[in-house]
Design brief:
This protein is an alpha/beta fold. 34% of the residues lie in helices and 23% in strands. The strands form four sheets. The protein has a six-stranded mixed sheet, sandwiched between helices. A six-stranded mixed sheet has the order 16-17-18-13-19-20, with helices on both faces.
Length: 512
């Protein structure tokens, strides 16, 4: 590990520069959890500092200390070498700190422009009024910085996940931040949007803005990072330069053990009965004439660019969205109805937004695990707490969910463990067809390996899996074959021997 002093920027007189912001010995404890343990973290102007670690390593807690959402139990903060206090988000804003959280903080029924300047509206000429025209023009200007032409008058709830992410980024940029903290900002962006974002980041860096960037994507870490810091179990493990380390070395530091980051699936797949058969499926959501099939014992990918209709297909299959044409068949039985009927037929949907659509966040881990299996566990409709607790404890042990108790609130778990709870819910309900929509979004490499191992175990035991992913390497290495979507339709199917990133992009991007 390189000594921090040897890689610190220097002033013109040759002496070391004072960090724009520095955290020294920061610790934060919650009941039963030491979230941060003596973390020292310098942030220099004009630098992109990558922050890596497993879910639960302390990255989010560190971000919240930076933005004033949490006040550290121990430690000190310094701005240009002078001791400061950040006890609120207003304090953080005063020092030019803006944070883009992975989980959106947007108001669904306000417009894009209103969200960007929420709480910072421009006053109109008449006292007590708002200058809506200026809010609109400034919102357009900020969005143009990242190459976006989103309708500023559109209500946020009408936007897709990728567009909402862009609004979050624009909201942070509108604050003229000197320290910009980004948590997985590209997880829902297309390649073009990602390129615009990276270009904008380099312009901000050239203007002296410090960027703290949290990412689980190794390509981003090495492409963007001037410096890389690794957290594990609330402690700072190392700070290194990109040219001094490797992806494998970073992963080992993050998880404390060697992890296979490729997740390559073996070639011994044995397909069984048809679990899902979709013919001519169309829906008001913009998908049309969808034909695909998934058999027991195989993992089938559904991929394409953001906005190509992948999630819309999953929701229509599960009965969450209305369909206008075509047929869906589960295990030889024609399906009509909603999610409750799909669940009864052994179908599970692990949605892209696990917090908004996959979990009851205010309930416990145990409650969530038994939620989809209530009719199976209690056919008499009389709830037995001991039986529910035993079922939850069995699943927690089976999936190695990191929680001190089934009574723990699911909202405080890391992203990887929350994803395991969603999967556990459907395993408890005896699902046989699993639809995974972006199953590894926002989770670390160690948790990704465990999620893929769960998928492999599912299909080896006779289940069927349809997997949606924006990570083409995941589709190529995990799936037995894949369907590629473009503009709401299936552009083609790729067998295992033709399943390459190049072929996926050719089908997904180019018209015949």
């Amino acid at each position: 590990m390189t000594n921090l002093a040897t890689i610190a920027p220097v002033e013109s007189d040759g002496g070391p520069a004072a960090p724009l912001l520095e955290l020294r010995g920061i610790s934060k404890t919650f009941p039963g959890v030491r979230a941060l343990d003596n973390v020292s973290f310098p942030i220099w102007a004009g630098e992109i500092h990558m922050l890596c670690g497993e879910n639960g390593a302390g990255k989010s807690s560190l971000m919240k200390v930076l933005c004033g959402a949490y006040v550290a139990d121990e430690g000190e903060l310094f701005n240009h070498g002078e001791k400061i206090e950040i006890k609120s988000t207003l304090d953080a804003r005063k020092f030019g700190i803006a944070v883009i959280f992975q989980e959106f903080s947007l108001v669904p029924y306000l417009s894009v422009a209103q969200n960007i300047y929420l709480g910072r509206e421009f006053q109109g000429k008449i006292p007590g009024t708002i200058d809506r025209q200026k809010i609109g023009s400034e919102a357009r200007r900020v969005l143009a910085m990242i190459g976006s032409d989103i309708d500023i008058d559109a209500p946020v709830h009408s936007l897709g996940v990728a567009q909402q992410q862009i609004v979050e980024i624009a909201k942070a940029l509108s604050q003229n931040a000197r320290i910009l903290v980004m948590d997985e900002p590209t997880s829902a962006l297309s390649d073009t949007e990602t390129e615009h974002l990276f270009g904008m980041m380099h312009r901000l860096k050239a203007n002296g803005v410090a960027i703290v960037y949290i990412s689980h994507r190794m390509a981003e870490v090495f492409l963007l990072g001037d410096r890389i810091t690794i957290l594990r179990d609330g402690k700072m493990v190392a700070t290194v330069l990109p040219n001094e380390t490797s992806p494998a070395d970073l992963v080992q530091k993050m998880v404390g053990r060697k992890v296979d980051a490729i997740h390559r699936r073996g070639a011994n797949m044995k397909a069984g009965e048809v679990a899902l058969d979709v013919r001519g499926l169309s829906a008001p959501s913009g998908i049309a004439d969808i034909n695909l099939q998934v058999r027991a014992g195989e993992i089938v990918g559904l991929c394409g660019l953001v906005g190509s209709g992948r999630t819309e297909v999953a929701r229509a299959i599960f009965g969450a969205d209305r369909i206008t044409g075509g047929d869906v068949t589960f295990f030889g039985r024609k399906f009509t109805g909603g999610p409750d009927k799909a669940t009864q037929m052994g179908v599970a949907l692990i949605p892209e937004s696990r917090k908004a659509q996959g979990l009851a966040l205010i309930r416990s881990v145990g409650d969530n695990i038994v939620l989809a299996a209530l009719e199976k566990l209690f056919p008499s409709r009389v709830f037995h707490p001991n039986k529910a607790r035993h079922s939850a404890e069995t699943m927690i042990k089976k999936l190695r969910i990191s929680t001190p108790s089934p009574r723990r609130a699911v909202q405080v778990l890391s992203g990887g463990n929350q994803q395991k709870v969603v999967i556990g819910k459907w395993l408890t309900a005896d699902a046989r067809l699993f639809i995974f929509d972006e199953p590894t979004r926002g989770i670390d490499v160690g948790a990704k390996a465990e999620i893929f191992a769960l998928m492999y175990d599912l299909v080896e035991n006779g289940a069927a899996v349809l997997m949606i992913s924006s990570e083409l390497s995941e589709i190529v290495n995990v799936c037995d074959r894949a369907y590629v979507m473009r503009e709401g339709r299936v552009a083609g199917e790729l067998s295992r021997d033709r399943l390459t990133e190049e072929n996926i992009l050719q089908l997904g991007m180019h018209h015949e």
